[in-house]
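Feature request disguised as a bug report, sorry. It would help if multi-protein outputs had a clear separator. Right now it looks like this:
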Amino acid sequence: MGMASDDEQIYAWTTQHRLLLADVLASLAPGQWQAPTLCAGWTVHDLAGHLVQPVYVSFRRFFVVSLRYWGNTDATVAHFARELAQAEPAHLIELLRAHAADQVSPPRVGPMGPFADACIHLRDLARPLGLSADVPAEHWQTLLDYLVSDEVAPALVPPGRLEGVGLRATDADWSGGIGPAAEGTLEALALAATGRSVAADELTGPGADLLRHRLRR
């Protein structure tokens, strides 16, 4: 496929993931909206607020607010998560469904940014609640191909995190990176690569020890 075709596939998968996220959120009891997620310091409600950010906050508004935080992307993202989480759960679910097919291409990350967000945050939400909702293996493999590439956005995988580490899936025919192997499921590899220590604890092999060390520095 050409680049345009690749992008269209990523947009289609992102739509699918957003609708799944909306379904999972709609299935939760009121008290579960205050449950913690794998995103440090964020409840399910906070994460739901973040999920509608790409389709609700313009790039210009994001940039303007980022100036308050001296250009710190993480702080700006947290600002909007808190702001949008003031909305009622039903409204956030409605927004997520209504804008599921929006084709958002943020600077520096392009279509892979929202795609990665939808894959990773589904499990950020579902794992602590013991929910099985997941994305297909092909989607995890596509995401992992991006995470180990030279094009990956630093906001997803900071420079040096995966340097000298080979990733190898135990539930699919996939491997990437160069170095001592860190082995685990596709999901665990993707979550660990994007900074989730709980998933890194599930990995095995000499590369896993190196990755865990880097995540805990």
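(second protein starts here, but nothing in the output says so)
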Amino acid sequence: MKVSYDQEADAVYIELSDKKPEGVIEVKEGVNLDVTEDGIIVGIELLNAGKKIPLKSFLSYEFTPDFLNKAT
């Protein structure tokens, strides 16, 4: 998993898989899911991220496989 931040767009992107997204599902305004043709979520985009989450702590957090196992 990779987390990146585009300061100019104020967008956070969480890449969950290396698979190529074939579509986008808008969950709510400013929150988009990139999905494969089969509907598998491969990425999460948060627009206007600086207004929604504490970026400094979020971007410094290490998302490890152990964290993901606990979150599911």
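Even a blank line would do. Unrelated, but nice: Confidence is low (pLDDT under 50) at residues 67-72.
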